[in-house]
Design goal:
By secondary structure, the protein is mainly alpha-helical. Helices cover about 65% and strands about 5% of the residues. It contains four helices and two strands. A hairpin with a 2-residue loop joins strand 1 and strand 2. The radius of gyration is 21 Å and the shape is flat. It starts with a helix and ends in a 5-residue tail after the last strand.
């Protein structure tokens, strides 16, 4: 009973990771090819192959096998290393704030009538 509940939970975790891998595959597919070169990462085709294989492995193979874990590592590397570099090069996403603090008004900093 307890073991079947664990495998049920593992099934849902693996499904969620497969969906996340598919989202990262779509993200890699819509990025421009020259952004990969500008960010000094591998080419777009290689990341599409890696993320496509990771998605297939996470959906088709049991999670206690070795290959889905390798696919998960590829998805993690894309998420924490490649994707932020691509976003920085292409200008997408939130960059650093443009100077000032949260108390700045339209005519300068607010100092509380001091």
């Amino acid at each position: 009973m307890l073991l079947s509940g664990f495998y049920g939970l593992l099934y849902w975790v693996q499904t969620a990771l497969g969906v996340y891998a598919a989202v990262m595959l779509i993200d890699a597919a819509v990025r421009r090819d020259d952004a990969y070169r500008a960010a000094d990462k591998q080419n777009k085709g290689m990341w599409l192959i890696f993320l496509g294989l990771a998605t297939v492995l996470l959906f088709l193979m049991p999670f206690d096998a070795f290959l889905p874990i390798l696919g998960l590592i590829a998805v993690i590397v894309y998420t924490v290393d490649v994707r932020p570099a691509l976003r920085q090069v292409s200008g997408g996403g939130r960059g650093p704030r443009r100077g000032g603090s949260s108390s700045d008004g339209p005519y300068g900093p607010y100092n509380g009538n001091r």
